[in-house]
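User: Good morning. I'm curious how adenosine-5'-diphosphate would be positioned relative to this chain. Could you predict the structure with it bound?
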Amino acid sequence: MSDAPKILIVDDDERNVRLIESILRANKYDVITAYDGEEALKIVNDNAPDLLLLDAMMPKVNGYEVCMRLKRRPETQLIPIIMVTALSSLEDKVQALEIGADDFLAKPINRLELLAKMRSVLRAKSLHDEVARTKAALEEKNQELLKLEHLKDSLMQMIVHDLKNPLTGIMGNIDLLMRKGRNIDEEKRKHLLLKTRDSSNRLLKMIMDLLDISKLEEEKMDLQWSRFNVTEIARETIKELRGLCEVEKKTLVLQNDETSIEINADRELIQRVIGNLLNNAIKYSPENTEIKVSVTPGEEETVVCVADQGQGIPPEHHERIFEKFAQVDSKKSRHRADRGLGLTFCKMAVEAHGGRIWVESAGSAGSKFSFSLPVRTDLPKQDSEKEPQPAAVAR
Ligand code: ADP
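Assistant: Good morning! Here's the predicted structure, ligand included:
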């Protein structure tokens, strides 16, 4: 298909049509022709041209009528029309312009005037189209922003609601412990304290994830680089979660427990990434199953994996679960107060180190979350916690 503007010539006099057609073809325009008003209206309906050269005086439906009908309809009112007429009185010109014609040409046609007027209305039309396109794009953006604003409001309500839940539990437990004082048996007291501690941990985790995600999003998080043994970090995190595992009857295993694998990274962030992955593995696996953690060193990157024997994740969700507030719609996730922030935090924290995170899961055979951190040779080999920070961190 050619990009040349498509011009519809409408005239009942065949000689005039041929004359204008030859001028236009010589100037690389696409030409369509019609010999009366009705035919012209039909062509415009079927295959709208970029411009009409419209003879005013024609039998049956004359040029003024065609112009009026086209300018009345929203779908055709923007197609430019140049009225061509043998009449040249001021009244004729005024009439043509009043009914919406964009310009006016008197017969006999002057080639240069014809081409100049055509260029002028086509230019105006293309500017108008550009403005219309920009307006449509802005309108679309505006709708998107309104949608985001709405989403933000409902997410805010959701978050406040989710933060309120564990807090209400904590306050209820403290109230009960204070009211009953010593009149509460040791077992019940221990249970209440454990529940209170779990709820507080959940609250703290949500708040930390939220804060860190917004810092990472705004690139305001300064990574605290240091050199440390990542196996040791995994071991510490597993130890912290042993209590929870006992309650939930799951076993945590660190493979190659004794090996020391040193990496350069932000120790606290990496510990929280491992903690998040382990918490999820515990949360989404059934009782009496095993969760394995492994650390594999490499020349270019170190890979940490957390594999569970849980419900698994369907492949279509493998990317989405790392998005903010994304959850796979399963019974387990639907009924919990968590809000799909943990993996977003993990992804952002790992990517801030120049690494990547991914999941492998063949449906119900469990999930294996892995993240890789590039080996940094530009950082000191020794424990460098008090050394100046390198330049390549996210600001
Ligand atoms: P949440 O707070 O909902 O657990 P996450 O960002 O940690 O948020 O996880 C997002 C979603 O990914 C979860 O809601 C769950 O559907 C899915 N998911 C994460 N880890 C696992 C896992 N080990 N096994 C199965 N599903 C998981």
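The longest strand covers residues 289-296. DSSP finds ten helices and twelve strands in the chain.
Let me know if you'd like a different ligand tried.
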